[in-house]
Amino acid sequence: METHDIAYYITQYSYLGIFIWFFLIDQIAPIPEELVLATVGYITHTDLINPFYAGLAALLGLILVDNTYYFLAYRGNKWAEKFRKKKRGQVLKKFQDKLQKHQVRTLFFITFIPKVRFFGPILAGLNKMRFRQFFVVNMCASLANVVLYLGLGIFFHNAMESIIKEVEVVRHSVFGVFIIIMAVVISLYVSKWLSK
């Protein structure tokens, strides 16, 4: 296998991997999807992955899983009912009250809260939000979310490249530290916000 063959397989199957990550793995992994999107944006600078197709793969995975959660909750699936009654029920209750008053605004902004985005489709389904309205709002918010975090990853790579041209290891290490700091800050913010 030659080098150009490896590059071909990486470019062809990376998009499928990104789709699978956001459709399946993201649902069970404790890693915030925002960090994964920023990492994908960072990696697109290797010229092996096109940022447009990477973003499209992520968006399709997110929309498909969101629609699945919406329909499960809308139809009163046992899983959705169990989920609502568990310890996450308090978090759901907080957003459900807001969703009843301001459906579009609440659903849109839930998308930007790390690890809370997951609740948006479930709450919309439990509140019997019309699918068309859910789909449009969720699509717009998810698109903005994907573009924002992919853009942050690309921006970070460009900024690092201009600051540190010669030292590859340092650049990647600084990105890793940045991701860890971002995860801690996001977690603290979400914890503080949910405790209100």
Give an overview of the whole structure.
The chain is an all-alpha fold. The chain has one domain. 78% of the residues lie in helices and 0% in strands. It is built from 9 helices and no strands.
Per-chain topology:
Layout: H1 3-23, H2 33-43, H3 51-74, H4 78-85, H5 89-101, H6 103-110, H7 119-126, H8 131-163, H9 168-194
Strand content: under 5%
Number of strands: 0
Nearest-integer average pLDDT: 79
Number of helices: 9
Low-confidence stretches: none
Tell me about the largest β-sheet.
Answer: none
Radius of gyration: 18 Å
Distance between the termini: 57 Å
Class computed from helices, strands and strand pairing: mainly alpha
> How many structural domains does the protein architecture include?
1
> What is the N-to-C order of secondary-structure elements (H for helix, E for strand)?
HHHHHHHHH
The outline comes out as: globular
Percent of residues in helical segments? Answer: over 70%
Question: Could you list some keywords that capture this structure?
Answer:
196 residues, mainly alpha
